[in-house]
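Saturday, quiet lab. Running sequence design on the structure tokens for the scaffold JK sent over.
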């Protein structure tokens, strides 16, 4: 289980998540993503980052079993800080970040892709935020960057998912390709960015962040406050316990 970072060629850095069986990241995994992306942006030789995953799906969110196996609130506090760090690192990375999404992208996974610059997805990919079913809140900020506002509310209240093709129709997923072609498609798009003058691209990234209509870092932290309230009230523990007792199945 690890997050790896490799240089492909021409300044294309590939950050890969590999946490079997479903890429539900533990606290250390979220911090590892943050560190890898931050280091990539700080490297003057890096022109673009591709964030991808091995295994059945891109990301199943946080490792709920880790939280429930830890006494007190330390794991909950750390996972919230770690997710915030990962999302912030991607959003503020000095170079564009392309998310290559295979299979499921749930909860914190939506936080990752919603913080990135471009999304390329496999034709079997789907996205959703099942936080309501887990007694928590979060990543509505990032889901709101992928879908219109009323669609966001419908998806969020019901914990249902949306396909990559639907997001492509909405204009938020750049391309949908067969699973076997996902990496090649993401790398091909990365090569287009890497071929540009990196000084201009880095300036463009900073400028685009500067004109965003909301501060996504503050917006996400606001959401997290309600998660803490639900935990103090004991609501979140009930839902997380039920999730673990039922085998921790993915929402669809």
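Result came back. Writing it out in full:
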């Amino acid at each position: 289980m690890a997050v790896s970072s490799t240089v492909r060629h021409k300044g294309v850095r590939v950050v890969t998540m590999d946490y079997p069986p479903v890429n539900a990241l533990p606290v250390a995994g979220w911090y590892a993503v943050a560190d890898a992306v931050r280091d990539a942006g700080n490297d003057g030789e890096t022109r673009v980052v591709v964030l991808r995953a091995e295994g059945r799906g891109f990301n199943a969110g946080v490792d709920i079993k880790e939280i429930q196996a830890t006494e007190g609130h330390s794991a909950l506090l750390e996972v919230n800080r770690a997710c915030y760090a990962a999302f912030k690192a991607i959003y503020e990375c000095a170079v564009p970040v392309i998310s290559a999404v295979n299979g499921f992208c749930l909860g914190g996974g939506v936080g990752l892709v919603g913080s990135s610059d471009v999304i390329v997805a496999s034709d079997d990919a789907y996205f959703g935020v099942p936080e309501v079913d887990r007694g928590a809140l979060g990543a509505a900020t990032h889901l709101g960057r992928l879908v219109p506002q009323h669609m966001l509310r419908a998806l969020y209240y019901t914990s249902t998912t949306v396909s990559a093709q639907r997001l492509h129709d909405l204009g938020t997923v750049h391309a949908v390709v067969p699973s076997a072609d996902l990496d090649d498609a993401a790398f091909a798009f990365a090569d287009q960015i890497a071929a540009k003058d990196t000084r201009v691209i880095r300036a463009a990234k900073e400028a685009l962040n500067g004109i965003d209509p909301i501060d996504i870092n503050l917006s996400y932290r606001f959401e997290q406050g309600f998660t803490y309230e639900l935990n103090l009230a004991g609501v979140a523990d009930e839902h997380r316990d039920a999730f673990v007792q039922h085998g921790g199945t993915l929402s669809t």
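Notes for JK: Strands lie at 2-9, 12-18, 48-53, 97-101, 104-106, 118-122, 126-128, 161-163, 175-177. The mean pLDDT is 94. Ask whether to fix the surface positions before the next round.
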